[in-house]
Amino acid sequence: MIDRWHFRMINDKKRNLAYFLALQKAFNQNYVNLLDIGSGTGLLSLFAAKIGYGNVYTCECCEVMCDIQKQVIQSHNALCHLVELSSTDISIPKHIPQRVNLVVTEIFDCSLIGEGCLPTLIHAHENLIINENSKVIPQSADVFGVCIECEELRKHAKYSLDDHKIVFIGSHDNMEEDQQYYSSEYMSTIKGGYKEITKSFKIQNFDFDNKQNLLEAVGTNVPINVTVKQSGRIDAIIIYFHLKLDDSITIKTHPESKTCWEQAIYTNYDSKSYEMGDVVNIESTCHEDHFSFKLHSAGVCNDMTASNEYVDFTIFNINRQIVARMNDAMYLNEYCQCMLQEISKKKMQKEVLSICFLQTDVSLLPAIVADNGSDKLYFIEPSAVLLKFLLKYQANLAHRITVLQRPIVEALSECSVTFDLVIGELINPNGLLSDHMVEDLTVIKCLCCNENTVFIPQQIEIHAMLISCDELRYENEVCDNSDVTLGFNVASFINEYKVSTVTDINILNKKYDILTKPFACGTLDLMKILHTDKDADELNLWEENVDVTILENNKVTAVIYWYHIHLYDEQQINTAPSEKSHWKTSSCLFSTDIDVVVDQMLQIKVTRNKNNLHFQVT
Length: 618
Prior knowledge:
Elements: H1 5-11, H2 13-28, E1 33-37, H3 43-51, E2 55-59, H4 63-75, E3 80-83, E4 102-105, H5 117-127, E5 135-137, E6 140-149, H6 151-155, E7 158-161, E8 166-171, E9 183-185, E10 195-196, E11 201-207, H7 211-217, E12 221-227, E13 232-233, E14 236-244, E15 250-252, E16 263-267, E17 273-274, E18 279-286, E19 291-297, E20 300-303, E21 314-319, H8 320-326, H9 329-346, E22 354-357, H10 365-370, E23 376-380, H11 384-393, E24 401-404, H12 408-415, E25 421-423, H13 437-447, E26 454-456, E27 459-468, H14 470-476, H15 491-494, E28 501-505, E29 513-514, E30 519-525, H16 533-540, E31 541-549, E32 554-568, E33 571-574, E34 585-596, E35 601-609, E36 612-617
Parallel strand pairs: 1-2, 1-4, 2-3, 4-5, 8-21, 22-23, 22-25, 23-24, 25-26
Antiparallel strand pairs: 6-10, 6-11, 6-14, 7-8, 9-16, 12-18, 13-17, 14-15, 14-16, 18-19, 19-20, 27-29, 27-30, 27-32, 28-34, 31-35, 32-33, 32-34, 35-36
Helix pairs in contact: 2-3, 5-7, 12-13
């Protein structure tokens, strides 16, 4: 597996061409010994070899990328020498025979410095580059910011339970314990849009040719005064940069620039309103791999790395998508009504209920249930954060909670319990069925249920639609047309690592054509009693063939899918793409586009193996 941004990066023809032209100009200025730092697929090194550089050294520390690069270099018979190390582990003459007079690198994430370009280039100046007359491509960068209002970002920022002095802070990269400094989005296509509250402002300049400039940058505090140009809340500072490869070639990552780079988002957890004309004093600090910001206004200092309103609260840093789920009031209300209605009904026959939660992520549902009685609560390998939250929420819950470890066949056999109620948030915010959900359901239904056990949700229907969407392919594989890579064949090798299931898609903000009406393609019936082994097998694995009619002449790129969640009686939730929903969409990206014509009939074979869905045109 490799990160999806690699595909976007290699597909960015403007970026590739800019680097090629900068390398050409440097070669004409007699820079001939080159080291490509963080070389990935080796594309920039191939550029250098084609231009005529005598010595091309390339270093990469990711094993998968090294394997790809070896194949790419060999297929082009390029004279490039790969060192499978981080540049900071290279020593001369052990790994390369001599210092170089040109370093080329593209180790810049959406905030510019998040991949460690500052310590990497400081080390290069000290250990790998000949002297101060040597050159780095890019030669410099300017980092800019702008304060914005964005409801979508606000939903992902925090959720508080004031009565219990608990606040959840949305962290990034699926980290639960450690708060991350920034996230990233293509702000030009973020759900609901955004508005700029201030004009853009410069945060920092970096001169990559100057070691002293880079050394002094780390730890620098920069005061910035900006005037509010339109009233609104400051929900975040977004960052973009101008990457100056040389005096005349610049790559810009502003939201409207449409490059492979997203914009870095520094969330303001204490979002406040400002009026037009207000002056906001921003204190920016440059660290080795990130920036931090403090907002000073009306005598109040707001440190954006934390939530200052909740100094006496217990703070839980959790996945920001889970925070967005907590802030989805309609979703939460639907679940609460169903749970409490069924609990109330069962309490008429039984005082203490046994309730199982198919829940590993942090969730408000167990806390809501805990408030309504002295029921016994069972969890299957819950996250440490979920348990900490529940014990903080109600200190006396410890004796009511039982944690079951997988394989749960043994655990459930030992505890000899029959569940009255089984509750689960079974669709992840990224659009996939929860891990282990089907396996756990099967065991629970076989060992711990009777005809009175109620499941919430009771049924999950899968719905899908065929679409044509070039953006999906662009973001998840390198174009076979080598035009984007200036004639070099990288696609054949990196595309070996592409995946067919693509998750976490905001499909509403992509350009796509709808090629079929939505169609139902399978049902997971949680209330069905398993009488035989065959019933259990069908819960874990089924196939269904669906006939669909094409609506227009086009090409099929992918199938997107979502769920109708039947919670209880007539109550249901739909995870279909919506501006108001917290869910993203998942898709199955076909290996090649399929040409179709209007009124053509296609048969779609849908396979579900436990939690995994696969679609095939037959």
